[in-house]
Design brief:
The chain is mainly alpha-helical. The protein has a single domain, classed as Hypothetical protein af1432. 49% of the residues lie in helices and 0% in strands. Helix 3 packs across helix 5. Bound molecules: fe (ii) ion.
Length: 188
């Protein structure tokens, strides 16, 4: 979830294109195995504000955005599942990004996340800094952060376009759709 201290920096607007196999997400079986693993160690309410329904909406937001930004779909999808997976509080937990970053490395070592070095670095960065309020980053990382910030409606906050990284996310109709989903609790 986005935090305080937002920085306004010059944005990188050129979509970055990835190789064809980077445009896919993982198989259902692999994803289900990862989710089972994460659920077994999740410390908070699985259906809470940082639990599975939020992960699903972040993934949905992210994959929609990636179609426009050119961000790596595999990284965006994995970010949705991992970025809050090591939260220890639903309220104030400033280190949860660092723990999510460590989780990326752990899951890669365990074979539950299979990414190349470049994608791993992007996922690591996206997870580590997702609550720092930054705007400037690689477009895949920006897509991840926007996907998360677009789900702020679940805690009663309408996403501020000035705090979104990509032009795609600042689209008023997209923000409105994401907000409606976040308020209703719907995933799709
Ligand atoms: Fe989040």
């Amino acid at each position: 979830m986005a935090g305080r201290g937002y920085e306004t920096r010059r944005l990188r607007t050129e979509p970055r294109r990835y190789a064809a196999d980077d445009r896919s997400t993982d198989s259902s079986a692999r994803t289900n195995g990862l989710i089972d693993h994460l659920r077994a160690s999740f410390a908070l309410d699985w259906r809470g504000v940082h639990g599975a329904p939020h992960w699903a909406r972040v993934r949905r937001n992210g994959l929609e955005l990636a179609e426009r930004t050119g961000g790596c779909r595999r990284v965006v999808s994995l970010f949705a599942f991992l970025h809050d997976a090591r939260r220890e509080s639903d309220v104030d937990d400033p280190q949860h990004g660092e723990r999510a970053s460590a989780l990326v490395e752990q899951l890669r070592d365990e074979g539950l996340v299979t990414l190349g070095d470049e994608q791993t670095a992007l996922l690591d960065s996206a997870c580590r800094d997702h609550s720092a309020g930054l705007l400037d980053a690689d477009v895949t990382v920006q897509t991840c952060w926007d996907a998360d910030r677009l789900d702020l409606g679940r805690v009663g906050v309408f996403p501020n376009p000035d705090r979104l990284c990509t032009p795609a996310a600042r689209d008023r109709s997209l923000i409105a759709r994401a907000y409606r989903r976040s308020r209703s609790g719907c995933i799709d």
